[in-house]
Task: structure prediction
Amino acid sequence: MFGLIDCNNFYASCERAFNPSLNGKPVVVLSNNDGCVIARSAEAKVLGIPMGEPAYKLKELIETNQVFVFSSNYVLYGDMSQRVMNTISTFATDMEIYSIDEAFILLDGFENIDLKEYGENVVRTVTRNTGIPVSMGIAHTKTLAKVANKFAKKYKNYKGVCIIDTDEKREKALKLTDIGDVWGIGRRYSKRLQYYSINNAWDFTQRPKNWVRHLMGVTGERTWMELCGIPCFGMDTPGDKKSICTSRSFGERLTEMAPISEAVSNFAAGCAEKLRQQHSYGCVLTVFIHTNPFATNQAQYYNQKVMQLSVPTNDTTELINYALRGLKSIFIQGYQFKKAGVIVSEIVPERPLQGDLFDLRNREKFNRVMTVMDSLNTMYGKQKVKIASQGFDRKWKLKNERLSPCYTTKLDDVLEVNA
DNA sequence: TCTGGGGTCCTAGGACCC
DNA sequence: TCTGGGGTCCTAGGACCC
Result:
């Protein structure tokens, strides 16, 4: 059996964990740049605030209902996620962290254990240890565990745990699950399936396998089988990233090269750091810039430059160099730029490294520089040491006017309790 | 005025090889 | 008039996830 533990309204719950006055109140968390809603507490959902809605469209609704609004604080959420995962890991020998707020665990050898009791214990313990409410779904396949998890969240008297372990329960659950809510069926397929009068997950399983294969390929076929109780997905051990992207929308529109160069330097540096963390090198670097696609009355420009690196690298200085050269080749004066980014792809392990016969760079030396830089930044804080082109102006910086404190990672932000 | 950021996998078709 | 059979690799686009 697979268990899926998923945090309830994760980002909103993180904000609440250290600010209990928010309990029972509507809370929303906004995306970078305070752009759109990416998390909502149950109360905010009741108010009809949709996921992904731009914040400015909700201004009135937010004011009249006294919704508490937060900029996203990924440092806090990342740290809270680790705490949740640490607790879950004490309950299982095989665990797969699937995203920032959910994890699968393998329930093998649990034949003589009361799964309901076990699940309730997991849910209770995680919530007690971290302050984050979670739910757990248990079933024979990952996709069914996902379905079970939705019911665990939906019905209070389940005490946060739902188990689908018989055909009767499976049929009942699938009949109550909209086709679009199935893991692996997104907006497009859900629309196409509805065209064939498939409205819920049960309808879907009643179609012949070949028909599904024809319409949706092997991925659809796998989902079909999983819903029928035949496992297609095992526990995954996520390997190294195959592409790494760092990109941001700017807090204000930029027209000049200088602040955009600074931003792009920082994005390249971010990619380099991520590469070093997973002990990989990148072989291709892409840099892109574009104007604001929503501003339809303005002149639009999008361009990107893809560059093959002469030697695979994870060196910040080298990647910044490429990125800035690429930027220079695509930047045009006269546009209001809104976003830029750097993507590193064709990622290979650090060793063995294929060198370049004519390479003049002292790679040993630069490697040591990077190692020292990383260790200084680990010890004294992010970006204590950086490359000059990363700059200090930060004209491109994000808008985040409603940022909560970093309660768990910054000494100055630690809560004070008056007793 | 104001609309996020980061990933994965699969498939079809074209170009090429013998 | 008639034009084989068997492969690989790459890329763009489409779908999905959180």
